[in-house]
Design a protein that fits this description.
10 strands; three-stranded antiparallel sheet; SH3 type barrels; 11 helices; single chain; five-stranded antiparallel sheet; 57% helix; alpha+beta
Length: 366
Amino acid sequence: MKLLYEAWLSNRLYDWGVAAAFLIGVWLALIVVRIGATRVLRSAALRGSAAHYAITAGKVLDATWISLLLPLGLYAAASAVELPPKLDRGIDAIVVVALLLQTALWINCAITTWLSRLIEKRRGVDSEAVTILALLKFMAHVVIWTFALLLILNHLNFNITALVTGLGVGGVAVALAIQNILGDLFASLSIVLDKPFVIGDFIVVGDCMGAVEHIGLKTTRLRSLGGELIVFSNADLLKSRIRNYKRMYERRVEFTINISYDTPLDKLRDIPYMLREAVEAQKQVRFDRSHFKAYGESSLVFEVVYYVLSADFNVYMDIQQAINILIFRRFANEEINFAYPARTLYFRKNASSGEERHLTLAGELI
């Protein structure tokens, strides 16, 4: 208050009137320039090949805070009057801090707009790039505002070296207190850099499965087949075994066919070739083998192995369905019977009648 009283006595009322006019005039002029430039950029964004540059510039200009323009008017007003040195230095500090904050806002908005546009271009096309750009966007915010804060403190004559040293010592204590959060943070960096999965991949973790919907700094979210959202801690996720079905180039399929024991030998020899023909009749498959595998308890077991040249589960199911229908039709034409669980019970010879009987039970054994 003493400084303001000294400043009041050092200048005439006319000088204070001129200073007030400078303050309001410069501030209003800057607001008018901001509004006019915004309108020009918006009209330029509607035409021309460089419209996206005009859009970016318009968004950067929209990040201009009117309150941060007021110190510039205050600086112009201070030039019209005589002020004590301390008060003059205080006004200079306010102006520099306002300019630093406004510059940080402009840079932050420009980088955010640029990265957001890149993310939208690659969304649904390049999931890996989307994940990396989202992390870069967050890191850009942290770097810009940390740098701006250090510049402001340095201009206000704070000892930045001591501050950084203190932050380093305090950071160790904080790191010990929030080591679980830091573990998730470093795990997210590992996910982004190593890319075991990206947004859009279908993964299985333990008994949970779903499509990766979001990779954050602490958690990763999956959208399950049932529609619910499954949230994993990044650190716990990397400790688990992850199956990434999106990275699967082809699918190995193995299935068995159970044939009745009363099948004639000549037809038994032809069954592997019938199964092979059913598989090779499909598109997007590569046949591997077909064999009479084993003697089962109530059936002859044949095994078929082939590869689906697509990772799409629906494609695999369509192919398997077509193979099953062809096999059923072929076996019906050849009068080859599928086996079902059965048991044959043998009874001892009746001592009085001398008869020996046996009974076959089909289906569930009673």
